[in-house]
Amino acid sequence: MNNLKETAEVYRLGLLIGFFTVSDAVLWADSIISSEKKPHIAIINIAMSRNEHPEDIARQLDALPGKFDSKVVSRQLVRLMSEKLTQDEKQAHHIAHCLYQMVLYDMSPGPEAERSMRYFDDALDLASQGIHGNPAKIIEELKVFLQKSS
Hints:
The chain is 72% helix and 0% strand. By secondary structure, the protein is an all-alpha fold. It folds into two domains: 4-62, no CATH class; 70-149. Helix 1 crosses helix 6 (92-104), helix 5 (70-87) packs antiparallel against helix 8 and helix 7 (111-128) packs antiparallel against helix 8 (135-149). It starts with a helix and ends with a helix. The mean pLDDT is 96.
């Protein structure tokens, strides 16, 4: 993620869907401040916003100037989800819910991915309640989907 605006959009979307926390965004802003001579005022504001709501931070991230490709942003976020799930399978429900939220924000990596993004949240809920499906199998399907879509 080398484009500042694209990275900001990854954090903005990640905050809105619940994948990132305010602390994640603040840490990212701190890293930008330490690496740039003259960071944008929005970056400075984010770094000082530890007690703000995610939506407020998202607005500040949106204020950063620049352009971004929404498909690139979506793929980067899906890649981060894939990495997180690889590290900790207990995050599967959370990640599945975040994928569903991405669809609601019209930020899927592509139209072919949308159906799966809607599927995993319900599938894991039903499987974990013992109603339908095998949670381990669905988690493996989720891993494959995330790797393929990132």
